[in-house]
Design brief:
With 221 residues, the protein is of the alpha/beta class. It has two domains: 113 residues, 3-Layer(aba) Sandwich (Glutaredoxin); 91 residues, Oxidized Rhodanese, domain 1 (3-Layer(aba) Sandwich). Helix content is 40%, strand content 20%. The strands form two sheets. It has a five-stranded mixed sheet, sandwiched between helices. The longest helix has 16 residues.
Length: 221
């Protein structure tokens, strides 16, 4: 399978839309990245049931920041949309093969149970709770890209793309809870963590705009 060049716009859809996704965070100037590249490319040819993606950290600085990349290359593995492995460094072929086998062998029912326990905290809103707060006049912040927002958003959602949010925090209403939404909950989760660090009362809409639309609820365009 050919390698996919992932961007901020395509990353979430890719990792949530396939069973197993590996992502190599790299840069052209990085020697270990160039060392790892042929190993990674060979594995992509040998495992055509797995999506192998690459993120150029120089071209996609926002995505690298969202993924909290501090060293390259860094390899991440996702299974059913869940991050199950993350490690910096140029892996040799045998170690990369071991990662792939380990990810394939995961008991995903158990992984989902663990994630549910970790996410069972008050700054995650399910769709029904979000809908109630939205109906009561809650402030909804959509952090997706402009084309996604134009394609359909929760009625009344205010648009600030995630890449612009750090410089536009002052535009958020003071003293009001901010309901942060993206497409399926990944990017908005990262932005909630950021906003909470800035002292903003922010919560994540865990099922995102896709979940809202799947209920047949109306979208503004």
């Amino acid at each position: 399978m050919p390698l996919l060049e992932l961007t901020t716009a395509s990353f979430e859809e890719t990792v949530t839309g396939h069973d197993i996704v590996l992502v190599d965070f790299w840069a052209e100037w990085c020697g270990p990245c160039r060392q790892f590249a042929p190993v990674y490319e060979k594995a992509a040819v040998e495992h055509d049931d797995i999506v192998f993606g690459k993120v150029d950290t120089e071209a996609e600085k926002e995505l690298a920041a969202m993924a909290q990349i501090t060293s390259i290359p860094t390899l991440m593995a996702f299974r059913e949309g869940i991050l199950v492995f993350s490690q910096p460094g140029a892996l040799p072929p045998a170690q990369l093969q071991g990662v792939i086998e380990a990810v394939r062998g995961l008991d995903m029912a158990d992984v989902h149970r663990q994630v549910a326990q970790q996410n069972d905290h008050p700054d995650e809103l399910d769709l029904d709770t979000f809908a109630a707060e939205h109906a009561a006049g809650g402030f909804v912040l959509d952090v997706r890209e402009a084309d996604e927002y134009a394609g359909g958003r929760v009625p009344g959602a205010v648009h600030i793309p995630m890449g612009e949010l750090p410089t536009r925090v002052a535009e958020l209403p003071a003293g009001q809870r901010v309901l942060v939404i993206c497409q399926s909950g990944g990017r908005s989760r990262a932005m909630v963590d950021f906003l909470q660090g800035e002292g903003v009362d922010a919560v994540n809409v865990s099922d995102g705009t896709a979940g809202w639309a799947s209920r047949g609820w109306p979208l503004d365009r």
